[in-house]
Fold this sequence. Notes:
69 residues, mainly alpha, 2 helices
Amino acid sequence: xxxxxxxxxxxxxxxxxxxxxxxxxxxxxxxxxxxxxxxxxxxxxxxxxxxxxxxxxxxxxxxxxxxxx
Length: 69
């Protein structure tokens, strides 16, 4: 999806293309939800994780627990 805002008619077209026909009264709600999801994903793509290992590399049992606050 491009950075151009998704219109209700485009949302209906994409849903139909995916095999999920939408009732007409849901087009605007789906378009709004899709725009929100797109904005969240766009922010996540901007994050620099640097040397952060992937989640499967994390082992909770290897944590060092101490009482220092």
